[in-house]
């Protein structure tokens, strides 16, 4: 029996008030792949993530996770099936320290199966997980600092640690380098590369730093005006004349 793709969309579309935001997107992401999603501003990249994660409901087509149609599942139930996501805007608790921020995510994951009696044990486990996840993103030395006092680059690392604490098998990263200084880009790139390699998870990465995407991913999906223009290896996609005129021609 063949393994179903980790993520598949078929004929996926979203029309709002007559505006066609996403049109007929067929995308298949095998388990373990790192897929880059690129395209000019407004191409539909975040909308694609919103439809996959359940933030938005499609007006056409389907979304499958591990071969199963998840149309009827809420964001939370998709998350319980192993789908994890970061957002363009920060979703951290600024007054809490780093361990607490990550611990809450870990505890929320455990909470679903946790009884009141098991709470102290689960709480200890969540702290160990939190410290481990902070180590994975190189933030152990800042464990007791309030999240609000971190640099922008370190906040993006913390967001990844929060995500790792939920132990996802499919990870959607929405512009993880947005707003960070160029000095932080190599460190964040390496964290994403290591996370993918060591966890063997499936990663979908929306990112405007095109050279970062091309150096990291197995394949690149190019979005343009809500459509999937191309999806292939970085070499093939970047040599594609349609992609060059549609995407690079707009100077995105
Ligand atoms: N809820 C909504 N209602 C109306 N229009 C929307 C809605 N959500 C997104 N859009 C529009 O859909 C288009 C695609 O937006 P989306 O945020 O998915 O693009 P994007 O490729 O992620 O862009 P960026 O790179 O700037 O983040 C844009 O023109 C946007 O204005």
TrEMBL record:
Question: What Pfam families does the record point to?
Answer: ABC_tran, BCA_ABC_TP_C
Q: Which residues form the ABC transporter domain?
A: 7-250
What molecular functions are annotated in GO for this chain?
A: ATP binding
* UniProt-listed CDD domains: ABC_Mj1267_LivG_branched (cd03219)
Enumerate the UniProt keywords alphabetically: ATP-binding, Nucleotide-binding, Transport
Q: Which domain of life is it from?
A: Bacteria
What is the protein name for this chain? ABC transporter ATP-binding protein
């Amino acid at each position: 029996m063949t393994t179903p793709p980790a993520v598949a969309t078929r004929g996926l579309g979203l029309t709002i008030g007559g505006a066609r935001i996403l049109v007929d997107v067929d995308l298949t992401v095998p388990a373990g792949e790192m897929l880059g999603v690129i395209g000019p501003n407004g191409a539909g990249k975040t909308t694609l993530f919103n439809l996959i994660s359940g933030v938005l409901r499609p007006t056409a087509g389907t979304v499958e996770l591990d071969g199963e149609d998840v149309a009827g599942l809420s964001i939370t139930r998709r998350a319980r099936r192993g789908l994890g996501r970061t957002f363009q805007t920060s979703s951290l608790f600024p007054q809490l320290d780093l361990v607490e921020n990550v611990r809450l995510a870990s505890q929320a994951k455990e909470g679903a199966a946790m009884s009141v009696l098991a709470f102290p044990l689960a709480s200890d486990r969540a702290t160990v997980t939190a410290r481990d996840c902070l180590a994975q993103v190189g933030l152990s030395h800042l464990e007791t600092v309030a999240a609000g006092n971190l640099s922008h680059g370190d906040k993006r690392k913390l967001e990844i640690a929060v995500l790792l604490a939920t132990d996802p098998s499919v990870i959607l990263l929405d512009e993880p380098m947005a707003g960070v200084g160029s000095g932080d880009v190599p460190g964040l790139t390496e964290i994403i590369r290591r996370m993918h390699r060591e966890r063997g998870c499936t990663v979908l990465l929306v990112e405007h730093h095109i050279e970062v995407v091309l150096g990291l991913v197995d394949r690149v999906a190019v979005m343009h005006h809500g459509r999937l223009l191309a999806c292939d290896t970085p070499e093939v996609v970047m040599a594609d004349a349609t992609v060059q005129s549609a995407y690079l021609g707009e100077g995105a």
